[in-house]
Amino acid sequence: MSRAQQAQLIEDAIVRSSLSLTRRRDPLTADPNHSSQEVEVIDRDLYRSKTLWKPSGGRGVFGGQTIAQAAWAATLSVRQDEPGTLKGLHSLHSYFLSFGNADIPVLYAVKRLRDGRSYSTRSVLATQLGVPIFTLACSFCLPEPAQPIRSHPVPRYIHTSDGKVPEPESLPSTEDRLRKVLDGELPPKLREYVERSESERRQSSIEVRNCDATSSGDVVSSSREPSPEQMYWFRSRAPVRRDPAFQKCVLAYASDLNFIGTAARATGLGSRSTPRLGMLASLDHAMYFYDDDIDASEFLLFWMECPIVRSGRGTVSGRIYKRDGTLAVLVTQEGVVRAQLEKL
Question: Is residue 111 pLDDT above 70, yes or no?
């Protein structure tokens, strides 16, 4: 028997033994500890998911959860090699290879690529039943606070005459906006979907408040006018442990909420547009962290822009700002953005 066959048998046994342990729910629902990103240690450099979540209308496991779990597994690997290290996650680059099945645990295999004095690098391969579904490369570095600082300020908000971003306290949450949508006339199938989305958002520990008064969380919209930008405030409803690495994984989870939806907005595609939005799915995701003193339970501003949509794909770039205007995280993503076109 080859090593590959032996490895496959081991993985199959691990999966079978843990199927009953996998919880298919919104892992952030009533979850003050954000266990959605936690992973179980199976062996050296081998980790397994504890919870998995498939969003309403989604094709598979939520991408943000996969990113967060893989990044946390890589973090545990670095800490295992260097106990007490000050190295922190500063960047990650990932690809979604296949839709994950929320009923089957995900295994995360970490590879140690480099451990230097200032930087460490890891790669992570996520598999289900031996099939790769996700891959991530990430880097960790020591902080250098004495170095020069320069960053972009908070962008002007295009939907207000003075360019000022509305304060989060003045904005309703996504679930409240969806509740208002349900007060109107909707087709039965759309109403059912909006009801599920409203319940899902209300129970989630990540609260979102879109700065655009016409937005309803990319589920339905009262405006079909294309817009290449969007901004929203978000935060964890529950406190997050004061561990910079854990905080960054929570941000990784939250950064995939409605992100590629910016590309659909840029083209005016939606559930009630003509043509309608046919498919929206993430292909890759990258993040760059520039602030180790960030609290995900405080309101953070997420600015997003779509520079191009073409050939069924779109790219979105984003910046996450702290309440005081500090630029903390950069995010980029490409995804499938298809209109539902009539067959010729």
Answer: yes
Q: Tell me the C-alpha distance between 33 and 343, whole Å.
A: 48
| Residue 31 a catalytic site member | no
Q: Are 217 and 174 in contact (CB under 8 A)?
A: yes
Pairwise CA distance, residues 300 & 326, whole Å: 10
3-state SS class at 72: helix
Q: CA 270 to CA 272: how far, in whole Å?
A: 5
- Are 316 and 304 in contact by the 8 Å Cβ rule? The answer is yes
Q: Full-prediction pTM beyond 0.90?
A: no
CB 337 within 8 A of CB 260: yes
Q: Which two tokens stand for residue 264?
A: 């659909």
Query: For 24-55, what is each residue's pLDDT tens digit?
Result: 444 444 455 567 899 999 999 999 999 999 98
Residue 323: exposure state from Cβ atoms within 10 A (0-12, 13-18, ≥19): middle
The answer to whether 129 and 123 are in contact (CB under 8 A) is no
Model pLDDT for residues 250-267, shown as the tens digit of each residue: 999 999 999 999 999 999
Active site includes 256?
Answer: yes
120 tagged catalytic: no
Local structure of 154: helix, strand or coil: coil
Query: Catalytic: which of 65, 205, 256, 271?
Result: 256
The whole-number pLDDT of residue 31 equals: 54
Marked catalytic residue, from 282, 284, 317, 324: 282
Pairing of strands 327-339, 277-282: antiparallel
List beta partners, residue 136: 94, 124
Q: How many CB atoms lie within 10 A of CB 242?
A: 9
